[in-house]
UniProtKB/TrEMBL annotation:
Organism in which the protein naturally occurs: Plakobranchus ocellatus
Repeat (ANK) residue spans along the chain: 1-27, 28-56, 77-109
InterPro entries reported in the protein's UniProt record: Ankyrin_rpt, Ankyrin_rpt-contain_sf, Multifunctional_ANK_Repeat
Keywords linked to the UniProt accession: ANK repeat, Repeat
A Pfam family this chain is assigned to: Ank_2
Entry superkingdom: Eukaryota
UniProt name for this protein: Ankyrin repeat-containing protein
Length: 143
């Protein structure tokens, strides 16, 4: 997962050639795909998606990861890779995840969808992608 954080594409490719488990997660449920999305390493996101990384895995409830602390960013529990990419404004990552059928209707613990997250804090160019992929524009949260 560290190679995904650092953006070392050649190491990611080598690990995958030797059948590394692409969906391994840490004790908090954080996967390599989440880390690549969080850091905007779109080339690694695409490699992981081509190798069928699970796109809708969630961070385990009530846990904040060291990566989030390091970036002074708290992501609510049950966050998906799509939500992370939307929040960080990584349009290419959002597009790649949607092309691989990321679930746009998934809600986190606070009942927020990716579209809600990006409409609150993300750049406008990202909003187009989830809403063009059948995101429920009438969804509400109860938090």
């Amino acid at each position: 997962m560290i190679v995904c954080e650092k953006g070392h594409e050649h190491v990611v490719r080598s690990l995958l050639e030797y059948n590394a488990n692409i969906d391994t997660n840490d004790k908090n449920g954080v996967t390599a795909l989440m880390i690549a999305c969080f850091n905007g390493h779109n080339h690694i996101v695409n490699i992981l998606l081509r190798h069928n990384a699970q796109i809708d895995k969630k961070i385990i409830e009530d846990e904040t990861t060291p990566l989030m602390i390091a970036y002074e960013k708290t992501i609510v529990d049950e966050t998906t890779s799509l939500m992370i990419a939307c929040e960080k404004g990584h349009n290419h990552g959002v597009k790649s995840l949607l092309e691989h059928n990321a679930n746009v209707g998934t809600k986190n613990k606070n009942d927020w969808t990716a579209l809600m997250i990006v409409s609150q804090i993300g750049p406008n160019h990202v909003v187009k992608s989830p809403s063009e992929n059948n995101a429920n524009i009438d969804a509400i949260n109860v938090a």
